[in-house]
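Teaching assistant's notes for section 4

Start the section by putting this record on the projector. Ask students to predict, before seeing the second block, whether Cytosolic protein will look compact or extended. Collect guesses on the board.
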Amino acid sequence: MLINSKFRNFFGNHLETGEDRLDESLKTRYYKAMKDKVFQTLENFFQASSEFEINSLSKERGEMSVITKKGKKAFIVVTVIMVSPNKTAVDFSVSLDSAIPLNFGYITKLINRLYDNLNKELPQL
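Reveal the predicted structure now:
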């Protein structure tokens, strides 16, 4: 089953994080912070980056959509959910704009890089 999961991470145009992922690097991450602080941290990161452009924001829903401006064209949906006071979950859904369903691990690397940047700013649970 893990081989099938790794295969899908390498081939395909879409990948998302979640609770039930076999690949540890693609599991939902939790942060010790309120939803608004996590959302603002993500918004600040994407605004400051020359690699990304925020497409839309919905603070009420805890969602933002982002597109990449450099490298492979990708559409990213970020979901921020407050699970309990001072415990907030962050998930990413990434789709590549490519006619050929090969990403050679690019999506997994992108998701891990986004989580790494968030880990620098917020305490992870």
